[in-house]
Fold these 3 entries.
Entry 1:
Amino acid sequence: MQQPTPISTHQRIATIDIIRGFALLGIFLVNIPALSAPALIYDLYSIQPAYEGMDRWVRLIYDLFVQAKFYPMFSFLFGFGFYIFLSRAELKTDQPRKLFIRRLVILLTFGLLHLVFVWYGDILHTYALIGFLLLFFYPLRPKTLLIWAASLLFLFYALLALPLLAPPSHYDSLNYIGETVGNNKVEESVRMYREAGYFELTAYRFQNEVLPVLEYFLFNIPQILALFLLGLYVGKKGIIAEPGSHRMLIRKIWGISIIIAFPLMIWLTSIELGWLDYGVHEESFSYLLMNLSGMFLASFYIFSAVLFLEKIRMNRILQSFQAAGKMALTNYLAQTSLSVIFFVGLGFYNKVSLTFGLLMVLVFFSIQLVYSHYWLKYFHFGPFEWLWRSLTYKQRQPMKRKDPPNKKTTL
């Protein structure tokens, strides 16, 4: 049996690392309101937190340009990365699927540990579990993948639209639950995060956060699997790997994406600023529009990066995200872990504004950009990437670079 060997770091597609680095910033922006306040409890009991002053405008910016825009990018990149991994593994081992399954099991372990002991918003376990389904789609033709992806997206958005069919009495019931049980649950959550010890808080989180997140898993499958398949499709077609051969198609996708996203964003703005009133269905309309626009804006972001990388002036700017993208797993876990230490450990939970959270993300991520750049001058991988890689191939991977860093290299 041929011994599996890891893919050389020189074989990576730089564009994907850059896009992943950019998506990492967006994911941090999306996560920070949930890391600093009981956002899950708000969602579970249909409570809308009130934003005033600058926070109201920051929330609008989030909904238009950030919320539901970056996890589609990450999901797309996971599907693309699956194609790269498996197609190259086929050249190096006679058991590429077994290798990928081992890789997913390790990712699932990371995700479950992160979910239970650090933060409920973990995405790693979701990607790992849905990732197993990709093995059934890998042999399919690109056209068939598109049909499956479109069908799954239609199902997902149909499910999102179902609340629009609910009678007003349904929303009266939700409002009553939110104003009674929900408000009490919010107070309980804040008290536990501020006063409970780690083990007491972990037990509380498991019952009130981890279990609801796991119960919600099935709802995530259609959209995330569809995005995985779109990434697999792009990988099979070589659209990002060989952009020069697909320039017209890339520009077409780029143009269509913004043409569809822009009016949806205007529509969403009109609702959130009170220019349009949909009564009891207003929140459901906003959520549907935010997710629909997010899908097309994510596509616009991805292919903007692909097009801009062909321009010398933009190349250096976008490359600053490349090192962070290569260390995406390490940086993602660092973002959540250090945020939990700051908000929970230092007593700032539910005490900071949305604007402060935004500024905190920009400062911390800037540090990550610099740190990642210099780390990769001395090491081949980030710490968790190294661990994941070593466990996948069942052999210790070389960590330190043998060649000395180039002192003239700048970020």
Note: The two ends are 43 Å apart (CA to CA).
Entry 2:
Amino acid sequence: MKAMVLHRMGEPMRLEEVPMPRIGPNEVLVRVRACGVGLTVVKAIQTPGRVTSYPRIPGHELAGDVVELGSEVRTVKVGDRVTSHYYLTCGQCRQCRSGRETLCERPGGHVGAAIDGGYAEFIALPERNIVPIPDGVSYVDAGVASDAIATPYHACHKEARVGPGDTLLVIGAGGGVGVHMVQMGRVCGARVIAVDIGEDKLDLAAANGADDLIDARKGGIAAQVHSITGGRGADAAIDMVGARDTLEAALASLGTGGRLVMIGSRPKHIYGDDPTFSINPEAFSKRALEVHSSRYVTSAEIEKTLELIRLGRIKPAVTRTFPLSGAQEAHELIRNNATTGRLALLMD
């Protein structure tokens, strides 16, 4: 089969012919039809220790058809259209059994890092990771939904607790996850203030439902948020960037009782700048603020996200697609912040 293969950290991926995956008794073989491409995978393959061995096939936002079952598989059948959960979890620890599998106490790593991923024609996946795709949802939409849209579902619903009448600030609103955060905020009933750099990203945020736009290049994000809200500030801020200046701006933009949710990150070993930000405990306590980190999603949240897509409440913003051989080009565009919305690979 054909696959994009990474032989060493920092090297370009190469299109190669590799052996077909062999499945174990609790695994399924999936013919990949589409695979989303985003900043998570770009950063993962540049982070020491994330890829556990080489050569490795990256990619985790995959969707396709089940073509073979392991001898112990009981909940999946050949022909099922499926996507995948990104984390490899034990399913038995306290966190997994309480529905918080992203905090698994015996984690096995990630699809595309600890096992071969979706930048390939076929992939072997644990039965536990399989999530069914409902009728009416395309392969590319389902693949992207497994991370770039399910993450906004979790962040808005569980962490930011966005509700009708709230004001939600989204920093990095024109990116592959941020543009779906804008849509999810609107689904939750919020007024959405979108922050990004460049007219193309802000235009995309506006096209996906943002009520107000702020160009971060002009500075003064917090002052503009307070002006837009009549001095009240935002009820919640979700930062997709994870830089010191954006995180501090997000905190300063919050009103009393506001919630900051951190999703994006800018590791120093990749970007060079220290993302550490400071909090004044007295002011923080006086305003009763909250800071949350959002750590991916549960399989159940992926299913709910796919249902929102099926119902037409959320529309995946895939702005460009590539053949499998174009994965390296897609990575370079993301690394250079030269994209809007989400990118995806389409297999022949």
Note: Residues 149-293 form a domain with the Rossmann fold fold (CATH 3.40.50.720).
Entry 3:
Amino acid sequence: MTNPIYITQADKEKLSKLIEESKYNEAKTNIYLKKLEAEINRAIIKSVAQLPTNIVIMNSNVLLEVDGFEEEATLVYPEHANVLKNKISVLSPLGTAILGYEEGSEIEWEVPNGKIKILVKKVNQI
């Protein structure tokens, strides 16, 4: 069974619009857009005030362990993504994978090079 994930109504609306727009612009990434859409559709919607602070939402700073290596990142919308500043797009495979999960969650996720194991070690909502 898959662990539940949580997002805000505002993020759901913005992400749904982003997915629809991206479907036409980025045909090669459709498989990842479909995964994000599936994640959004199964998410439990909460207000920001109702969400625990240990949930990965948009603009959260996170400490991850990806296949045994620690990585710090901020989950952002595509227009704010910047690899040099560790800002990862929610449309990236890693960004989609962590959206809505809480600290301590372990996730196996398919990426272009195969499956990765992700541990959400720490979440700081901004």
Note: The chain has one domain: 6-124.
